[in-house]
Amino acid sequence: MSTGVIIALIVIVAVVLVVAAVLALRARGPQHGGSLKRRFGPEYDLAVARHDGDTKAAERELAERVRRHGSLRTRPLEPAERERFEARWAAAQERFVDSPREAVGEADRLLAELAAARGFPDGGQYEEQLTALSVHHVHHVEGYRRVHRVTHARVDDARDGGAGTEEMRASLVEARALFEALVRPDRHDAGRRRTGTEAGEPAPAAHAPRTTHAWSLGKRRPKES
């Protein structure tokens, strides 16, 4: 085989390898983006909108969220902690009828404290806490974002950015989903309790009935605070 033929074969092989590498990179990109879109759902769309339609920038942001918070291990609540949080949430719901703005503010503080108690970043770092929650509770995090926005809206006039009673009610209802997700025991926590009981440890006492059931404000129109 002549030297020219050998060189031609080497060039052809090199070109094939380069083309294969390019195709592999192109194939990996959409799969990565598709995986992020499936994982983050509505948060993916919000990120794209925040980056003015730049999906690559949005995907870099979401990938960074996973890198920073994906391995976060949550801390289980003690039974007494859980009961205190549930009692405070029930009180906030009841307070809404007479003082909706104060009730929503309490819900915002309560979610921040509950998330911190479960091992998420401290509530004083709202954006960082929200980012971490979006990785682990993506389908519920919008409720926290909404109740926080309503809490810090201008209070003088709803038309100028303040929240009206209906918006406050809707935000509190939506935020309850994240509260429920954070306050209930994780499956692996329940498994640890069962394992301990089987090993001879005393079974935990039964909790009081949950108080965070669905609620309605239809019987009485709440007053604006």
Automatic annotation (TrEMBL):
<keyword id="KW-0812">Transmembrane</keyword>
<feature type="region of interest" description="Disordered">
    <location>
        <begin position="185"/>
        <end position="225"/>
    </location>
</feature>
<protein>
    <recommendedName>
        <fullName>Secreted protein</fullName>
    </recommendedName>
</protein>
<feature type="compositionally biased region" description="Low complexity">
    <location>
        <begin position="197"/>
        <end position="214"/>
    </location>
</feature>
<keyword id="KW-0472">Membrane</keyword>
<feature type="transmembrane region" description="Helical">
    <location>
        <begin position="6"/>
        <end position="25"/>
    </location>
</feature>
<keyword id="KW-1133">Transmembrane helix</keyword>
